[in-house]
Structure formats: C-alpha cells, structure tokens
Amino acid sequence: MLGFVARRLLYLVPVLVAVSLLTFLIASLLPGDLAYVILGDQATPEKVAALRHDLGLDQPVWWRYLSWLGHVLEGDFGRSFRTGQTVLQAVAERLPVSLELMFFAEIAGLAIGVPVAIACAVRSGSAFDRFMTGSAFGMLSVPTFLSAILLIYLFAVELRWLPATGYVPFAEDPVANLRFMVLPALTLALAEWPGIMRVLRSDMIATLQEDYIALAKAKGLKASRILFVHALKPSSLTLITVTGINIGRLIGGALIVETIFALPGIGRLLVGAIYTRDLIILQGVVLFVAGGFVVMNFVVDMLYAVLDPRIRHGHA
Amino acid sequence: MTEPALLSVEDVSVDLPTPRGNLRAVDHVDLTVGAGRTLGIVGESGCGKTMLSRAILHLLPKKAKLSGRVMFDGQDLVRLDPERLRKLRGRSLAVVFQDPMTSLNPVLTIGTQLIETLQEHLELDGAAAKRRSAELLAAVGIPAPEQRLTQYPHQLSGGMRQRVAIAIALSCEPKLLIADEPTTALDVTIQAQILDLLAREQRRRHMAMIIITHDLGVVAGRTDEVAVMYAGRVVERAPTPLLFKNMHMPYTQALLAAIPRIDAAPHTPLPAISGRPPDPTRPLQGCSFAPRCRYATGLCHREKPALTPAESPEHRFACFHPILAPAGVGA
Amino acid sequence: MATLELGIDEQVAAGPAGRTRRLGPLFWAAVGWTVFILAAAALASLLPLPSPTDMDMLERRAPMSLQHWLGTDGLGRDELARLIHGARISLTVGLCAPVIGVAIGGALGMLAGYFRGRFETLVVGSMDVLLAFPPLILALAVTAYLGQSLLNLTCILGVLGIPAFMRVARAATLTLSRREFVIAAQALGATHVRILLRELLPNVFLPLLAFFLLGVAVTIVVEGALSFLGLGVPPPISSWGSMIGEGRESLEIAPRLAFIPAIAMFLTVLSFNLIGDTLRALTDPRQGAL
After folding, report:
1. Strands B225-230 and B38-42: what pairing?
2. Which of A108, B58, C49, C139 has its CA 20 to 30 A from that of A69?
3. Domain map of chain A by residue range?
4. Which of C1, C9, C15 sits opposite B181 (nearest CB)?
5. Cis status, amide bond into C236, omega within 30 of 0
6. Chains with 3 or more CB pairs under 8 A to chain A
7. What would the CATH number be for the domain defined by A94-279?
8. What is the predicted ipTM?
9. Helix (H) or strand (E) holding B305
10. Which chains contact B through at least 3 pairs of Cβ atoms less than 8 Å apart?
C-alpha cells in the first residue's frame, strides 16, 4: 500500500511540473503583449517598454518561467492588474461557491443515478430498464447549457418556483442559499446521472451473475442485504472510478452553469477574466484548477485503493 | 426406504431458452434422499447435474422454466412463497459451490460472511455470532480462527476458502447440504481432505448430503446411494455398494473406466468415452447415449428406455442392453 | 459440467443486456437526420433563403409565417436561415476538429502501440499532461489568448481530442500487434511502414471511425458551450451555440428562439452518438462495457 502511494506520488510531480509549464507557455508565447493589454493600444512605446521591464517581460522565457514557478511555489500566484486582488484571494473567495455547487451536483447525480441503476440491473431487460437506459443515452446528448435553459424556462419563467440567477452566501441566509443552488446543481446532476447509471447498471448486472450472489441467496439473506451489501459494495469501486473520471467534466460544467446562473464561483471568475483580458488571473486560475484536478484524480486513485481490499493488500 | 424421505425430487424438468432454441437441461428426474443419508450425483460436464442442484435450491436463472415438485421436509419448494423459502435456505438447506474463488464475496470479510447467516437465521447477537463463527472455523480445520474473521477471501488459499464455504454452509446446522463439485477447483492434494471433512461433519451432525461430481471415485466410499446422470436424465440409480458391484448401464461403466487406475501398467492409455454428449437443444428420439454406445441397436435409436428395476428394487437403470457381467469385465 | 452450464448462464444474461446485431429503425432515423442536416448545411447558399444577417427592425421576434417559416429573432433576422447557416458553423467545427484529433492521435497511438518502449512512455506521459486540464478550461484559456476565430477554435478542439484518439488507436494496435498476421508479416521481412499502413491501419480504422463519430458529438457540444458563453465563433458569424445564447435573453418573451436551435443541436448530437455507439458496439468485442 505504501509503495503504491509513493509510486503514484512520484508520478504526480512530473505531471504537475508539465502542467505548470504548459499553463505558462500558453500565457506567454501566444500573441498579445501583456503590456499592451494593460496600457491599451494607444500607449507610447516608452511606457510599454518601462512596463515590460517592470513585469520582467524583457527577460528570456525560461527565466520568466522559473521565477514565476518560484513565486507560485511560495504561494504567490500573482495579482490582478485590474482589481488589485491577488489570485489566491480571488480563488479563496470563489472556491466555496464552486465546491458547494459541485458537491450538491454530485449528490443529486448519485441520488438519481444509483437507484435507477439498481432498479434497472435487478430487472434487466424489462420495459422499465429499456426506458431508463434509453433516457440515459438521450440525456448524454443534452449539453449542460441546454438543460440549464430548459430548467430556467420551466421553474423560473413558467412556474416561478425558483430564482433563475443570483447567489447569497450560506452563512448569510442558508435557505436562500439553497434556493439559489437548486437549479444549478440540478442542471449539473442531469449531466452526471446518465454516466453513473450506465456504468453502475452494467457493473451490477455482471455482479448479480456472480457465484457469491447465488451463495448469498442460498444463505437465505434478505433481498435488501444481497442487493445493498453483497452486490453494491463491489460495484461501489466502479462508482468511485466514474466519479473520478467525471470530475473534469464536472469542472467544465460548473463553469458554464456558474456563468448562466450568475454564481460567483471559480468558473465565473475565469470567464470574467477572459472577458476583461485579465491575463494574470486567467493564468493563475487555470494553473490552480488544473493542479487541483490532478490532485483530485490522485485522491480518487487513493480512495479506490483504500476501498478495495485486494489492492490494499497488494494483490492487484 | 421405509423412513419418509427428507428430500424428494418428483418429475423435475428444467428448460432454458437459448438463442438456438429451448434447452432441456434436466429431463423428468426423480430422486429421494432420506434424513442423514448421502446421495452422489455423477455425470460428465453438461449432463444437468448442476442445474438439478440449482433447481432444488430454487436458484435457477430468471428465464429458466421449472416443472415438477421438490418436496423438502413436507413442503414443495417450487411453490413455496419466497419469504418462507428464504427462511429455509441457509437454515435447513445449505450449499457449497464448486469454486471457492468465486463463491465468497471478495470485498466482505470472512467474519461478515459467516456472521450474517447466523444473525439472519439464529437471531444471535453480535458477540455470540462472532464466537460461534470462530468455533465453526475451528471445526472445519482452520487455524487461528479469530484472526481469520477479519481477513478477506483473497488472503486465504483455495483449500482454506472452501473450508470457509463449508463452515458457512454448516453454520445453522442444516438438515440437507448440497455440495456441488466441492473439490473440482482445488489442488489434488487438498481434494481428499475436503471430502473427508464433509463426510465427517455429515456423520457428526446427522445431516443429509448430496455430493455432485463428475468423478465416480469421489462417491465410491462416501455415499449411501448414487445416481448417474446423462443428458439431463437419471440413467442409473442404486445403493453405492450395489452399483459398484454390478453396474448395468454402459455409460456408468464407461465413466468408471475413465478413472485412472493406480495399479495399471505405465503408459496404459485412458479409455476415454468417444464422441460428445448430444446437443441438448436438439433432443434425440431414442436413448441419448446411443450415438456413443458400443451396444446400441436400432431399438436404442428409436425409443427411450425407461428406468426399470434390476435384481433389487433399489437398483434402477435405463437401458435396453444392460451389462450383466460384473463390473470391470469387458469394458 | 461447469463449462456448458456457465455458458448458458452467460447467454441468458447477455440476452437482455446485449444489443441486437441488427440495426434498428432508430439507427436509420439517426442516419437520415445526419444526412439531412449535412445536406442542408452544405447547400445553404443555394437554398432560397433570406440572408441570415439581414436585419429587419420592424419584424423583430416575428412569429412563424409563410415569409419567415420559423419567425425572426430579436434583430429581425430570419430564424430558419440562421439555423441552417448556424448548422454550417457547428458542423464545420464539429467535423474538422475530430479530423485533427483522429489524424494526430491515431498516428501517435499506432506508433506508440507498435514500437512501444520510450516513445510510448513519452506519448502516454504527454497525453496525461494534456488530460490534466479540464477540457473546457483549456479550450477557454487558449481561445482567450489566441483570439476568437473559426480556425483557432477548430484547432484547439482538435488538439483536445488527441488523447482520446491516441488511447483508442494504441489499445487496438497493442492487441493487433500480437496477432498472427502481423507476426507473419514481420517474419516475411515487411518494413515497419508497410506493416503499419497495410496490416494495422485497416484494422484500427473501424474503431477509430466509431470513436470519430462520438468525437463529432462531443465537439459540437463543446463548440456550442463556448459560443453560448460568447467565447466561441466571433460575431456576426453565428453557430447554434451562440443562437441559443442569444435566445436565452428573450426566454420570457420568445422561448422558441432558444429552443429551436437547441432541438436541432440535440437531434444532431444524439444522431452522431447513436451512429457512433452502434458502430462501436459492432466493432467492440466487449459488449456494452460503457
């Protein structure tokens, strides 16, 4: 187990370095001079040269990368030249919103996907199974922004049950916070459940054919125990893998959803930075999100190992 | 048999729909097992013996069709309501499957898998169930039973796992234990140990047992009665000593001849049974063994022989041309 | 005994879960829609349609009529014309980007799977780095730096597809390389180039094609999302995504302006998914794995 962790950790380092390099290169090598962006197109060459020197843009690329990386490692991701906020401040302010959104979305996705998958697996081939499998396949073809618009139209415009946009911090007014979260989280959950359902369903169908399920039946156990302990526990490993694979899509989806529903999360910070050409924030947030994504994938790997006794005892 | 039978299988057939058509896996089988007695069911791969055991346990695939009656302890298992059937399974009717690698849940500890049965049927509290589990593991010859309870199946060897499976089966003192090829997946050196363990526990607990195997040698010293199956039918049935003394069905004889003999000269070729079992989706009109049988005549290809009594009424066989000489001669 | 009867168990199990080998009516409906939308997009300039950019301020958000079959949008532009010209953009990006992905990813994957060794480690490693970015974030960041244009958008979406195509090609090549016909070709002294092109490519082609169609569906969605946010194709070009984005502003007055392109997009994505998935099921021996 320890060796497994160490190997994965060791692999993490080059990936993170490469991610930082790529992030930096996208920001520095591509056309568009930061100094012109800050000063505007009408700036005098002298002013631009002075700013370039202040920003270190006249240094060679590799030197700029190393000094940037050095600052990042010290926790200094840079400071927005528009708002004066540091990247870390901005991220710390927005991160809870995004995490809350993704948390609720994943919970809702599991709450829809897992029961449907179990019901389908138990009655595989039935009309219900075919209907739900078809629906899941159809839902996979609905982009997040489409379901967002559909939900807004239904619940905010027609029925007027829930607010379409806006946000209140949880600490200020929990009920209002949750009301603002319902539609965004549901939108993401609609994109999440088909994947969860499809993988868990086929996995459960396979598991239910196993000898140990036949033995569990032969032992006279209750159907609920067979289903939820004997069949679902082995399949929960698959569920974790799916969740892990979905994180990337979830982050992308959160970005769209935050923009549509005006939630002040990381995604909206990023989109806002693009609109205002705030390159420092952009670079910092991309690095932060990509780094976080790599680390999250690592955590999922570890979780998998902890839950599967075969890997835990080094039999994998 | 004068005592009322514990289990009687009456005219049981199992049909499986397959893409190639209907497959009759078990064809009008009648069997009885008395309390505390042992029955061996012998036949080669695909003869329907596992399907028969699953039919008795009511564990057939969803699409399978079962007809006939399975009377166990005065109740018809086929028509029993699911809740009462569930209370019977694991409690009075237990099973050991062929492959201990797949029959134990890989993500649950040995302890969990033992204790859940005890708690389900005997209503023991946690501590008592744990104590009893350790006793059971000790009884089936597993060293350091308390430690094993917290281990997972993959941490045990194949033989040890099968012992665990036997402990689970024995846990509620069942009246009938069905052992479905309990040693086929194990190393040869372990096979005899497991069979002896089963025989010992069977006698000690005075429980009835059905041993399903492809190996006549397995049932020889360990059963009271033997039923030989071929293509879904019982083709010969007799008390074990009678069968080995005087087998009538050419198929039984061929099965016996297929066992390697330790006293044979080196490099003696094994007399394999030529040909293959018939395609079960295309039933034959006559005797199913006729295409492979050296004694077969036109009659055998036209008509199915019924199970008829031999010299003693307990010994029945289905053949038009029974072998009358003592076993071993002429094979 | 277990052999035959386990076989039966599997067949019984595969019955409901496995898909039929025959192509159902749904598949042909999907093919029909795809052909229809491709033809409409290709022939857009030949069709008797009003210009998609002509504004008519007196006819803003006009309802459906003989003159404007699907009505007009918030600037009085003909909705049907915009829909069909939007299909052009969505499908151009949707088809071209995966071509980049399948060409580069497929080649890298085949080379990695065939030659193995350090080259494979390098390819797989760099793909891991690319995969370390949530795809939408990377697409946004790069278009933000590069500037919005149809070409930039297509290129970046194409690059994002490379890792997936690489994996499919590499996995297929890995299994194929151990097959007799490849070993026989090697034994006969065939060059690497010949083996890769003549022996392996024809066999890797089908799985890649199936995956290509799924890639088209994904690309249309991602392009739609970017354009929806106003970060995809630059105005006045409009794709379905930007039409939906604009329609969202008038959701309370004229929901159809968002829903008509939404339905077109959904049907197209669904069709590509259906065709791709059916093809994949036909070429993939492991049925219904995902």
Report:
1. parallel
2. C139
3. 94-279
4. C1
5. yes
6. B, C
7. 1.10.3720.10
8. 0.83
9. none
10. A, C
